[in-house]
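Hi all, a correction to my earlier message: I attached the wrong file for Neuropeptide Y receptor type 2. Here's the right sequence:
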Amino acid sequence: MRPSDTSNSTEEWEPDEIGVWILPNGSMDLNHHGFHTDVTKHLGVQITLITAYSLIILLGLLGNALVIYMIIRYRNMRTVTNFFIANLALADLLVDTLCLPFTLVYTLLDEWKFGAVLCHMVPFAQALSVHVSILTLTVIALERYRCIVFYLGQRLTWHSSFLIMAFTWTIAAVLAAPLAIFREYRYEEIPSINLHFAVCSEKWPHGTSRDGVIYSLSMLLLQYIIPLAIISYAYICIWVKLKNHISPSTRNDAITRRKKTTKMLALVVVVFAICWLPFHIFQLASDLDLVLMFKEYKLIYTVFHIVAMCSTFANPLLYGWMNKNYRNGFLMVFRCEDKPDSFHPEGSFRTRSMRRLTVNGRNGGHPPTAV
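and the right structure:
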């Protein structure tokens, strides 16, 4: 598009994967140079965007750092499920530190101020974190499915859980790599007004958007539809198993704890799915040129991006609300207390029972009265 055409409307504009505004031929959005009105340039809107992103970053850093700290600090919290939760928190911290600040500045200024290296790394880091999150949620669901539905007492070992986490990061890095590889950092010039500014945009092979559409469709399947289908099936089976489970009274407490933990983890998945659904749909529609006619296209896209990013701080809030261990831990941190005996790690039925039998055997062989 020629520079003189930019004053017509916003229909020609489309976002890249991190919510930045470029022309179909890769040129930057020139709204801030006065070519046409852009509602995101209004002071009230910018204050709102800055406030929203700042709150997400602050809450995400505080909540996820607390989760990781608790799991490292208290030995009783070092269970396999909590290791995976820490992996989830680490991915969210990656977004809060390496993605959101740069995305906010680029959205407000419409110019990339951070150089060529970060131009490639920021979209890669955001895609990497999202892949790690959904893969970790899938692993948690499958692990609980294996232990609860098949009633397997042998949980994953620490060594196995760390290997699985390393594998999730490797797979996530491979899936996110195209956003780092097919990226271009360059300078745009408009001689007629002596304008010179930096651009960071996608540049797919063959110079067409077809590859971008294929990638978006693939990510919708691999990053959203397929994992959520697997997770949903696993948690439905778990819930049916726990609901219909008939056990001795000595195991009632363990059953109750498992139901609460499963409900919490399932809700984490639901929140993730709700937060990311509008963004995925709008991104795909953008690649297919179905929504570019909206006048406030940029604002709508930014709002959906903010909603998606809310998932980075929602998890610690859910843990504190639904899990007694995390709630106690958060309160202890804020009160500067240290009571590790207030944590009660969840274990499998069989391993918890064996552990109690061993302890009671040393105390005279009396059977356990409660689990």
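Sorry for the mix-up. The first strand starts at residue 14 and ends at 15.
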